[in-house]
Here is the input.
Amino acid sequence: MMKTVLKIGGMSCEHCVKQVTGALEGVSGVKSAKVSLKANNAVVNHDDGADLEAMKAAVVEAGYEVE
Here is the structure.
């Protein structure tokens, strides 16, 4: 399993954290996502073959930015 840290922009509350978490966990190959409002990032645990661009696209589609 691999770990990727994504810098997330545009989050302002716990609802945002839940939205980003759900978006990331919906990507094929993603096992878990721990999103931090304080650190403005997401630590994503995923399979080796998971698509980084799909993770970024899921966050953007949810209405947030990947920095």
Summary: The chain has a mean pLDDT of 97. The CA atoms of residues 23 and 58 lie 5 Å apart.
